[in-house]
Amino acid sequence: MNNSLSLSKLIPVSLVLFSSFFGAGNLLFPPLFGYLSGSNLNIATLGFCITGVGLPIMGVLAIAMTGGTDLTEVAAPVNIAYAKIIMFLSSMAIGPLFAIPRTAAFSYEIGIRPLFGTTEPWQLAVYSALYFAFSYYVANNPSKVLNWLGKVLTPALLACLAVLFVKVLLAPSFAPGAPQDAYLHAPFLKGFQEGYNTMDLLASFLFGATTLTTIKTLGIDGKKNLIRTCLWAGIIAAALLAFIYYFLGYAGAEAHRYLSGEFPNGAGILIATAQEYLGAEGTGILSAIIILACLTTSIGLIAAISDYFHILFNGRLSKKLLGVLIALLSFSLSNFGLDMIIKMAIPILCFLYPVMIALAMLNVFGFGGNKRVFRCTMWIVTLFAVFEGMKAASVPVPMEEMLRLVPLYSEGFGWFTVAVMGAATGIIWDKLKN
Asked: What's the rounded Cα separation, in Å, for the pair 401 and 143?
């Protein structure tokens, strides 16, 4: 039995974990929060990185703490049916409901739409039909080509970003604009909530299972050794992600020199930044790489979620049929366009994130398997998460005046208050019973 993984093997595992999280969609939100946060960039980035970097790594550790690769084990102490429903909803969010359609819509916005100059519904429809036909075909016919593309595209994308970052840093003195909207009064909390949009915490349980399997194939066994290896791999991956997010945010904050007006998402800011510093040719190269990176993300998610759903439904549906259904639903939703996909995702993410954060924390802090602590915490957190989703969807919340008495509820974090109270109740109950 090996007790540790050598640095020469740990680095590749860390890079695999990094590339799993870092898809082209992760380029979409940092430029926007940088542009909006302005002089409050640093504190907003801290909030964004907690949800966009720290929590996903905690999700990976939560899977490592369970000691297996079955995603339902993370929430099983609450109830098996509850665990399956939550993991199904989470997989749908990072799959055909939002994350997969977003890859098509984003790649269209940044790489195809500028070529036409005008926007017609048929353009996106034709592009997304070809996009998902290819995604489905490759997902069901895996080959070394996909792995090769992943190994080439991620370094190529990082190289383009590195050139862009250097040019931005060498630009005239940094003079960000004034903070806008919620970034003026609560930049940390707003950045924290913006990190939901990466959906990386939802994906972290799936990626954690894959990472755990990879580590085991390298000869590491024993629960403590697996957790330690996942931790170090996570720290390296987290450092890379945080570095990229900060400089994308920095580029967005710096864009006030040559941009003005409002932007519904970060695609327009990223395109304008690339044009400003890389010119037409550099922008074309960056756009082509992003399109291909979106494709590899789409292919990987279709394959991974088909596999998980095949297990979840006890093999009643074949992987190929599940792949077809996922591709068709993704195609349908991608035609709503990038802005609408992001808008539709927000209420679901505001519901899922508190639940998944609480599950990850309970597992990481050593309460795995403790049904009393899990149930006292998760039932009340789930209820408050429903309220957060309703608020995000502008649906009236019953007895909201009473709920406002809960600390942090008005700021969107009442679920955290009740999570702490629920966990404390569960701990006391558990000690009394024992």
From this structure: 57
